[in-house]
Amino acid sequence: MQARPAILRAFVLALPLLSGACMPASGPAGYAVQIQAQDQTPGGEGLPYALVNVTPSIMPIISHNTPHFAGTFPDRRPPNDIRFGVGDIVSVTIFEAAAGGLFIPAEAGTRPGNYVTIPNQAVDSQGNIEIPYAGAIRAKGRTVVEVQQAIVDALKNRAIEPQAVVSTVDQRTSMISVLGDVRTASRFPASAAGEHILDAITRAGGPTSQGFDSWVMLERGGRRAAVPFGALVYAPANNIFVHPGDTIYLFNQPQTYLAFGATGGGGGGATGGRQAQVSFGAWQVSLAEAIAKAGGLDDASANPATVFLYRGETRATAEKLGVNVSKFEGPIIPIIYNLNMRDPSGYFMATGFPMHNKDVIYVANANSVQLTKFLTFLRLIIGTADDPIIAAINAYTLKAAINGAFEAGLGVVAP
User: Fold this and answer.
1) I need a surface site. Which of 80, 175, 239, 296 has the fewest CB within 10 A?
2) pLDDT, tens digit, 9 for 90 and up, residues 117-170
3) What is the pLDDT of residues 250-285, one digit of tens each?
4) How far apart are CA 395 and CA 384, in angstroms?
5) What's the CA angle centered on 145, arms 144 and 147, to 5 degrees?
6) Phi first, then psi: what are they for 193, rounded to 5°?
7) If you average pLDDT over every residue of the chain, what do you get?
8) Are the C-beta atoms of 258 and 361 separated by less than 8 Å?
9) Which residue has the higher pLDDT, 268 or 114?
10) Cα–Cα distance between 218 and 308 in angstroms, integer?
11) Does residue 7 contact residue 398 with C-beta atoms inside 8 Å?
């Protein structure tokens, strides 16, 4: 009977340490995330990160920080006129104003439209085409109008008011490739009228899977960027013009995020929570929708003021958010966004906060949850203290727990 008071006294003394160091939890306490963000020693064990509070001032930055083509390919103008390349098949027709010139015999008489058509020819490996009496005319890298003018300039002192009409018979160099998860992967000539990315994908038969699971990668001039297929449909700024030489690649990658901590309400109580990988099910979802899809905040355990979202941001974005990027190395800055959903306006901000693929949401437990767990453990110990054998086992367990708490909290072992 003497074991119960001794155990009680030991637990009361160890309460602050036990509740923070030894009780089970699904992740760090909210205050630990906030304190560690401010107290980060260079070369320490943990990965340094920046903590950014979700406030109205950062919402314009976040809302524009979604995958898009505009940053990588800022030129949204139609492509320039198509230029010839080696291997293109060219047709040339030359007109003269009167008979008796280089190409129209004198006996043919004078009539409007006197002309001669030169047999089709390919632009040779030197980038030239051959024109009778004019020799090699440069075609590679030139437009139709430029080649026509070059032919006229070469013949004007020999032919009678010459005019030239040049056309492409078979375009083999200014091509666009559409590959991947499309119905008919193909390579086709660029349109002189200009066309957008969705037009090119349509030419290839469209995507084979659901649009919200499809991504579109554009490669141009050694640069590449990828956006969800839905971003082309719902954000027209992404549906930029394609240029000759572009490669468009469609691939299937379901967008998902991870939810940890006090979400989902898994049955209620201090141990509730749904740890899950959740699919977007759409091309874009907000933080509010993501929390709801994960089951919402657990009413019995969640601390609404400590809703955290883990994401890697570029240095440029981090600077806009007010982060001191000089403390970090590499192009990606680890950032934890802290959303306070005790604030009624927090729900408005959550609806305007777009999720990114592979984001991590963590909802910390309320401080009272650890105390509840401790009291449950204490009740178990007290309820079995009258049994000598169980009391001895509990006493040993208690001493080990207290020692662990002291080691974690103070760096020493309890006597």
Assistant:
1) 80
2) 999 999 999 999 999 999 999 999 999 999 999 999 999 988 889 999 999 999
3) 999 888 999 998 887 543 333 445 688 999 988 889
4) 11
5) 65
6) -80, -15
7) 82
8) yes
9) 114
10) 33
11) yes
Q: Which amino acid is at 378?
A: L
What band does 87 get if pLDDT is binned at 50, 70 and 90? very high
Q: List the beta strands (DSSP E) in 247-331.
A: 247-252, 256-261, 276-279, 302-314
Can 40-66+255-365 and 175-252 be said to share one CATH topology?
A: yes
- Evaluate whether 273 touches 217 at the Cβ level (below 8 Å): no
Please report, as a single letter, which amino acid is at residue 312. G
Least confident among 74-83, 204-213, 258-267, 339-348: 258-267
Q: How far apart are CA 345 and CA 351, in angstroms?
A: 10
In degrees to the nearest 10, what's the CA dihedral of 363, 364, 367, 368? 50
CATH topology of domain 175-252: Outer membrane lipoprotein wza fold like (3.10.560)
Rounded-to-integer distance, Cα 355 and Cα 280, Å: 9
CATH of domain 89-170: 3.30.1950.10
Under 8 Å between Cβ of 405 and 21? yes
The token pair at 17 is 């340490």
3-state secondary structure of 224: strand
Q: Which of 108-122, 157-171, 181-195, 222-236 has the lowest mean pLDDT?
A: 108-122
Supply the pTM of this predicted model. 0.68
Distance in angstroms between the alpha carbons of the first and the last residue of the chain: 23
